[in-house]
Every structure is written in C-alpha cells, then in structure tokens.
Amino acid sequence: MEEVDELVRQYGLEEDLEYVIIPFTDGKGALKRRFIMKRPYIRIVYDSGYFVDYLLQDVIKATVRNPELSLSEALYRMNLETQGDTDEPETDKKADLL
C-alpha cells in the first residue's frame, strides 16, 4: 500500500480508511468525486463472462487520467497507451532513426 500512498500524494487525492477519493470536474463544470475501495486488486467482470484483476495502483492511475469514463473503459485506454509504446513494428522504429 506504500505505492498507493505515494499516488495519493503525487496526484493530491483524498482518502479515508476504506477509500481513495479522486476529485474531478465533469464536462459541465460540476465538482464530483470517485470512490475506489482500498483493496490490493479490483476485479472487473466483462459481459462475455471473463474477468480481470487490476492492481489498485493501475485503477487509480486510469481513473485520474479519465475520471468521467467507466472504470473498464479507463483501464482499457490506459492499457492501450502503455502497449502502444512497445507494439511498434521494428521497421517503423528504424525509419524514425533515419
């Protein structure tokens, strides 16, 4: 949970005994808050019946980046961003160097 404490400090989040609280302003300018339960993993169950356990740290990062999206969509976008850096074909990387 030390990493979670560091994220709370880094992003200026709120917390209590049970939740990490992420304040944000929605598209209409209203102040809102997302509450994320303090557990080592958060399980997302998808429509097709499978599930994925995400680290609490990843859930916090995804929610801070995209607070208005559903948690599953925010995590999906965060994973796309992190995988996008490593999935480039080798030929593209070489072309960038020239």
Summarize this entry quickly.
Helix content is 43%, strand content 27%. It is built from 4 helices and 5 strands.
Keywords:
98 residues, alpha+beta, three-stranded antiparallel β-sheet, two-stranded antiparallel sheet, 43% helix, 27% strand, disordered C terminus
Architecture overview:
The chain has 98 residues and is an alpha+beta fold. It has one domain. Helices cover 43% and strands 27% of the residues. The protein contains four helices and five strands; from the N terminus they run αβββββααα. Strands 1-2-3 form a three-stranded antiparallel sheet, covered by helices on one side. Strands 4-5 form a two-stranded antiparallel sheet. A hairpin with a 3-residue loop joins strand 1 and strand 2. Helix 1 packs parallel to helix 2 and helix 2 packs across helix 3. The longest helix has 14 residues. The chain is globular, with a radius of gyration of 16 Å. The N and C termini lie far apart (44 Å).
Number of strands: 5
The number of helical segments is 4
Beta fraction of the residues?
A: 25-35%
Taken together, the total number of domains comes to 1
Shape: globular
Largest sheet: 3 strands, antiparallel
Low-confidence stretches: 89-98
- Tell me roughly what share of residues is in helical segments: 40-55%
Radius of gyration: 16 Å
The structure class reads alpha+beta
Main sheet strand line-up? 1-2-3
